[in-house]
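User: Can you write out an input/output pair for a complex, sequences first and structure second?

Assistant: Here is one pair. Inputs:
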Amino acid sequence: MFWNLFLKECRLQWREKRFVWSLVVLLLLAVPAVAVGFAHYRSDLSEVEAGAVAERERWVQQGPKNPHSAAHYGIFVFRPVSPLRVWDQGITPFAGGVVFTEAHIKTDASYETAQDQSTLSRFGSLTPAFVLLYLVPLFLMINGFALISGEREQGTLRLLSASAADPRRLLAAKWLSLFPIVLLVGGVMLGLGLVLLWGRLPAANLLTASALCALVLLLYYGTIANMTLLCSAVLRSSHQVLVCLLLFWMTSSLVVPKLAASAAESWFPTPDREAFHGAMKQEKKSGMDGHDPADQRVARIRTETLAKYGVEKEEDLPINIDGLLMQEDENYGNKVFDRYYEELAAVHAQQERVFQWSSLLSPLLPARVLSMTLAGADSGTQHRFNEAVEVFRRDYVELLNTDMMHESRSGDWRYQADEGLWSRVPVFTFDFGSPLSRFATQSAALGMLLLWFLITGVLTAWLAPKFLQKVTP
Amino acid sequence: MMWRVIWAHESRLLRRDRISLAAALGFVMIMIAAAWVNGDKLNRWEQAGATAVAEQEARFSAQHADLVAMEAGEKHYDSLFGSPQSYFSWAGAVTVFPFDSWAMLSTGSGDLFAPVSQVKFYTKARVPGHDTANPMPRLFGAFDPAFVLLYLLPLFVIALNYGIVGDERECGILPMVLAQPVSPRQLFLLKIVWRWGVTSLVVLFALCAAFAVGGVNPLAKPLALAQLAGLVWLYCGFWFLLCLLVNTGRRGAHQCAVALTGLWAMLLLVVPAGAHLIGGLLYPIPSRIEAIAAQRLAAADAAKQGGEILAKFYQDHPELSANRGDTYAQYKATFQWYQRTLAVFEAVEAITAPMEQDFEARVEARLRFEQGLALLSPAVSVREALDELAGVSRVHYRAYQQEVQDYAARFRMFFAEKAFGESVIESADVARLPRFDMAPLQSNASVLRALAWLALVNLLLLAACAVLGREIPAR
């Protein structure tokens, strides 16, 4: 009985023109979305790899130079490209992918690609995530809104009720009938993605990412299917169902995310970049509590160093005190940076909590966050990248200062290091982590999505059978 | 007099349709909320600009007082380090994007570029992004009046009109209506014109409320107001005529609703995203990484040939090899360092200029191509026009970037004159130090293009409705 009901629903859908049209449109969008995403990934990857190799070459072959000059010559670090970005670009166009690292200064990632794009880019990019998270739910709603209300209007619900069909089975069959097409579109995209990315990251990671992505999509589509069935059962006419579902889609996909974005920035504003960097610079100069100015710190370190080595003049020191002073300045600056960036990270975390709470109004938000996280294109990954760059900067600046400290004498600014030292600076690497570990950081988003699925599921299972008995509009 | 009967009937229907009245009220409230939210953000950005300028002027003023004291022999610095005579004490000058009061209408490109940036004479000037901001909010875009007009207004129109004919057909009253002494074409066109007029009034009222919330007097810019009203009226009309066109077939109300929703999704989501995809494929923008690599290479080469470059710099700028200041002997090495740095900087600029011009040309070509594709969806044209009216379009930010570059060149030249004149900063120099000043750019090319394009599309739709509406199936 159940399968007969399910097959009947599928057959009915296939006979609808809108179903066939929307399926064709979705498949026409899905395939180029994956293919173009892959093409962009390959070109971005080759650019980043070539850029990193050239930058390393320039660094190593910069010629003999004072280590501190080299520290100011600096190293450009390019954000690696995750193969899973084919799936979802996430925040990548809005987050810088290039960081210039040098002594004394912690710089932020810059050169956002969105800056070079036209107005069209603000309407969204045609990525697999865009098709699957924005368009497929709309398709589900358009195809499913009349599942019950349509039967009620046509009078066939009376016939169904008169049959021996269990209302819950009937509902389950209708619910399931929404999925073959979703599985087809999602399957085509995931399958194509798997084929294209096979060998580009460990098979276990690729399969885990695909499985987790499928889980997210099933929970999301399950929620949409629940809502569709619930509205179709509860509301009086198909018009009302359609209007209500479209209102829900528009609110959850467009309005709530934008409102959440604006609210997050309004309630927890991030400091202006000039003011932020100005404040750090000032604090480095005047001391973290305003009572330890840079010149006093320098004088204190000079005195302590002379005392430590038991000499009276800097020239008699076995080390170059300038190297030591610069490293001490780095250490102090790092404390200032840590404090400011921790505060900034706390503001970002508060902003993201606004998104988390807004997920109560939109199932798209947690689904999008999970999709970006799986693709390694979320703000958490960007934050980890920025931290990794900062660790790299601190390490190599310390290496250069230490070399200057031990290989030259105080006041000797003519000292020059060579390729031997430059080669000792390690190559920057960044590990995106496994999809599972990234996914685990978004347990709140997963919980929200699960909550949406369960609440809408329970409501549908509880309310829809009752309204199923109402056979007339 | 048929129009009077029809409009009076429509008016009665509207008064009794509580859902439509609630939707209209909701629309106005959403517009007000969007204006408030966007106005709040704009205030923060303007505040950041005002604070940066005030802090700079306070710093300059304090340093100027120090210079006066030094020249009077009342104050003394042991070295140039930290002294106001040093170029580095004056190195950073702020540039602030000039927001128009209408910027509360749209965020435009405002969330991609920092409202305040700093120009230094020894580094390349560029307008940075909001480096300290969380990229998440920018991913989802801004909740501003432009969003309400672009996305929600069409849905509002569709919700009110998707069944303009289909509803009457489904209720069975269409045969009775068509039995009246009025042609179907006249009847439904008159209905649409009335609803279009009422909706336009609601939208204009919502916009006035938005301006009031943003503390802006729209009448101060009557031409821009007329353009905005025209834009909204034509965009609204586009969706009304589309509703009518879809209704002219043999479809029921819910089939029309599905078709209109599909068209909405196509025009606002799929077409722009698809056009962007095609633009990216046909006109790929070269990577910034390549530009950085070229600049690094040029800088390294220039640094190695410092002496030759300095000589060439003197050849190119004979006016700078002028008088030697009194402080020459004291700070000879410092001046030489500045001279070399500035000469190398100019050499690197000259080497990388062709690549940058190529980059800009390719970005421009892509933007032009996408501008052409934007005609596929009226929403994109309207978005560009709204951004332009708000003074935050790509054109505005590109003009700002250019102005920052020009200012940076003037700023650098000021220090070049000092460095090659081999004198330190004096109190008399402070008044000559260039300050950034840019008035909001007045441009309306996108607005006029959108108005013309929408008028043409609407005329075509009207003609199609007139042809297809001659015979409206009663069942």
